[in-house]
Amino acid sequence: MAAPVAASLVPRVSLPPPARPAASSTRGLDLVSLPGGRYRHLRLRRSPLPAGTAAASSPSVPSSASDPGSSIGHALGGVEIYSAATGEPVLFRDLWDQNEGMAVVALLRHFGCPCCWELASVLRDTKERFDSAGVKLIAVGVGTPDKARILAERLPFPLEYLYADPERKAYDLLGLYFGLGRTFFNPASVKVFSRFDSLKEAVKNYTIEATPDDRAGVLQQGGMFVFKGKELLYARKDEGTGDHAPLDDVLNICCKVPVS
Questions:
Q1: Phi-psi category of 87—alpha, beta or left, where left has phi over 0 and alpha has psi -120 to 50?
Q2: Which helix (H) or strand (E) holds 254?
Q3: Is the omega angle on the peptide bond into residue 187 within 30 degrees of 0, that is, cis?
Q4: Fewest C-beta in 10 Å: which of 18, 24, 101, 238?
């Protein structure tokens, strides 16, 4: 009987949202899967993409570039997002030391997604372990800073580590999945039912008001990335809603890499 309750937490979408506009400057990211859900070989896509193809793209062959991870870190560094604390724009490259600093970049779905409240609560509760490893936690969600503040205040979640990406620029660059099927019908989404107690605890103060005004944002999937400077050490795209990266994998990456 748990499944119907969890399903009721997902905001309803009465009509499919309009297709995402094509952006000639969009750079996507192809990831080649390795055992355990990790992605290590990556390739930047520099050609224009038709609407919605970044989300639906299949993994590509590895890049021939000598250091593709650094190329990705460099590209992401120029993406502008917004601080939930101040509402001011900030570039990714200003959020951690781009030479030797370690950062976990958690791309949530949208601020009105119950599964993202659960993920945010787990990240909050794990923050001390990131701090002890010298790792900066950066949580990004789809929506405006005022929507981010709703999650931060009601969950709660520390504002200084929360950022908003209303135009989904980082999601597009990293090639994260997008679409109705991925959001509501992907088999990976059933994983959330195994965490029902955690989900129920996270949404005690939940409100649908945190959902982005642009309802297309509810079809965006997230992912988890670990950087040392500009080098990408770990990348995982969520296959469906609630299909989050195993936190033990993320912590293992953070703890095994020496921090200067």
A1: left
A2: helix 247-256
A3: no
A4: 24
- Position 26 scores a pLDDT of 37
Strand partners, 224: 106, 236
Contact 109, 221 (CB under 8 A): yes
Tell me what pLDDT residue 220 has.
97
Spatial neighbors of 224 by CB under 8 A, at least 6 apart, are: 104, 105, 106, 107, 234, 235, 236, 244, 245, 250
Distance CA 41, CA 180 (A): 27
Is residue 158 within 8 A of residue 132, CB to CB? The reply is no
Which residues in the chain come in under a pLDDT of 70? 1-69, 193, 257-260
Classify residue 91 as left (phi > 0), alpha (psi -120 to 50) or beta: beta
Neighbours of 197 (CB within 10 A): 9
User: Which DSSP string do the residues of 148-190 spell out, in sequence order?
Assistant: HHHHHHHTT--GGGEEE-TT-HHHHHTT--BSHIIIII-GGGG
Query: Can you tell me whether residue 235 is helix, strand or coil?
Result: strand
What is the Cβ-side half-sphere exposure of residue 15, based on CA atoms within 13 angstroms?
Answer: 4
**Largest Cα–Cα distance of the chain, in whole Å?**
52
Is 30 in contact with 8 (CB distance < 8 Å)? no
Q: How far apart are CA 241 and CA 103, in angstroms?
A: 23
Residue 107 tokens, joined? 């791309």
pLDDT per residue over 115-150, tens digit each? Answer: 999 999 999 999 999 999 999 999 999 999 999 999
